[in-house]
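This week, think about what follows.
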Amino acid sequence: MKKFVIAPDSFKGSMSSVEVCGIVKSKIIEFYPDSEIIEIPVADGGEGTSDCFIQLLGAQKVTLMATGPYNEKLQGYYARKGNTAILETAMFAGLPLAEQRLNPSVTTTFGVGTMIRHAVENGCREIIIGLGGSCTNDGGTGMACALGVCFKNKAGDEFIPTGSTLAEIAHIDTASAERLLKDCKITAMCDIDNPMYGKNGAAYVYAPQKGADRDMVLLLDKNLMDLSETIKSQLGVDVSKIPGSGAAGAMGAGILAFLKGSLKPGIETVLDLAGFENIIKDADVIFTGEGRIDRQSLRGKVVIGVAARAKSKNIPVVALVGDVGDGAEAAYEMGVSAIVSINRVAMPFEKAKARSKKDLADTVDMVMRLLKHHVNQK
């Protein structure tokens, strides 16, 4: 075997995609020291997205100061390659930043907008935004304010809305943002298909993990519904039911309505930027993986995104995963050749994660022994 490609997601809570690549690569080298090994650490838009692109594309790390979810000053960064900037919502509106103050009715995405503005004002014309891991529920209005969108209440006063005040928006003026973003292409990496509001929307599905109790969920959902109606009447577009509009506290809706951007599966964005089809030419085996594969994983997650492109070239794909859930077997019809769990001893995740790196290495060792044996038998 002469060529291997490693393209995993992170194993959330235990290993980053960069770490997974390194472990798999070290084992391949033991068996095929002279082989070509290409690493493609994948992030689907959440925390770590910028780091993945910095390594994957050799992108520049651009640092800046902006405000966090509670308007505190923070230092962050994004990745830049040529005139393309890759940013993550989690950098200035991430769930870990809320710490013990979880309250999605008052948190803001303003810092995310500051980051976008910084990239645009420094010459970037293609903006890619990862929508994963937010602690907010402001419909992207904070982000929009940082980019020049003006929100006014019925009294004509300008303000920066949050989840609890979205219903107070009576007038939206996007003219300044349109001038700033002229000639810019904005794409959000989005791997969920939730609508803006309703039982499957941003507030009901995601706000509880951000600190919302039942009454707050009801308020946030109603306010998103009001925002949707205001967008429809003021801007003439209905984004509420577009799949992914509920991502990142309905920031997906804000990307569509205020920035005239688009939503695209994260894995497709990563593979396109990496030039994946060209990379996997002549590959003997592709290793991919994620923390868990199940029925949900079949809807555009990393393993399936990688496998779909490999299938067209008839390249074997080995999926290394933590857990194998119900419905995972359907992945075999979508290009996955083998699913191998790295969990070598049955134990709770809190204990298993401490040994996950060794378990991954031992599992890859086992797979490589099988591959080596198969090749030697030919």
The mean pLDDT is 93.
